[in-house]
Amino acid sequence: MIPAEATGSRSVGAVSKGKGALGGHHSSIYALGMQRSDVTKDDGTWVGLSLDMQDRLQPGLCVFSAGPRLLVSQLSRPVLLAVVDEQLQGVDFWRTDEYRSFVPPLRADTGRALAGSPERWAHRFAHYLIDSPDSPLHEGRWLLSCESPLRRWRHADTSHAEYWGSMLVDGHPNGYIDWFFHSHSWEVLPLRPMPDSDDSRVKAYRKQAREGTLPPVLMWWVSGLDCHLILDGHARLAAAIAESVEPPLLQLHRTVPRGDLATRIDQVVGFYEDELARFAELRAVHGPTVPDGAATAGPQLVRLFHELNTAEQPTWAWPLPGGVDQWRHVAREVTAGQEWSHS
Predict the structure, then answer these.
(1) Burial of residue 10 (number of CB atoms within 10 Å: 0-12, 13-18, 19+)
(2) Residue 237: helix, strand or coil by DSSP?
(3) CA 55 to centroid of chain Cα atoms
(4) Helix H or strand E encompassing 210
(5) Do the beta carbons of residue 119 and residue 216 sit within 8 Å?
(6) What is the pLDDT of residues 285-298, one digit of tens each?
(7) The model's pTM
(8) CA pair distance 166, 170, nearest whole angstrom
(9) Using an 8 Å Cβ cutoff, are 256 and 311 in contact?
(10) b/e for 66-101, b at 16 or more Cβ within 10 A?
(11) Which residues contact 109 (CB under 8 A, 6 or more apart)?
């Protein structure tokens, strides 16, 4: 595996609750090959759900790479082909109609029952992510969070309809993800065409949007595209845009692997100790008017510990068997004679 940067029912074994080693409180659910833990801030505010996966070496919804070319495949069905341009200013893509959501239809009564509780929604979506053979989860630690950078970019004088409409990447079957214009704003790429506002599903969800019972839109941040892919909720996002309300979101991304945690924790503690030692040296020279450094280093320590559970890590991509030649073969098949310069 390489980082892609630029180029049913379930048996539960045990439940534990306590103070997390990284700060904040957590509760954990252990199942075969998986640990699920709530991630909170130090004040107890719920941030997201940590999913520690084991024994799934390759996901059903998988990113493959061949140099600057990417292929997103779902159980061997090509879903998205992409080429990073030579100037690293964006990505040309071709989207097929082969993507299928692994989330079953969400009933309106479920929306009402879970309304206003991203935590309960996260646990429900985690169930589908873990149990479905065609989800993007693979071995490692993931975060399913209600906190998304997408929420931070909207200006107060911009309507939700205008903002979220502008964040959607246009084009079907092909289009362009513009890294130059949308630098670090992380656009939203639907994995199938967005339905119109008068679509029957959108109409049903518009009523829920007005009532405040709209289920979250599930998104997956893929670093190789620097973009969010919609895993489930195309019609829900369309409904939120049509009603000009902020769509509830759950964002999925990789976070610090469990195997790296001990080293990262040691680094964070080392930083804190070095800062206190630096302030101690200053106090020895300049006297007790110099603070001891705890007021500065302490909040930084808390922030760094929090990031170990929440910070985005590069999306894994698998080398495409057959390399560029195979990518081009797939491209010719999915474009079926339609004009695309990269095929």
Answers:
(1) exposed
(2) helix
(3) 21
(4) helix 200-211
(5) no
(6) 888 888 887 877 77
(7) 0.82
(8) 9
(9) yes
(10) bebbbbbbbeebbbbbbbbeeeeebbbbbbbebbeb
(11) none
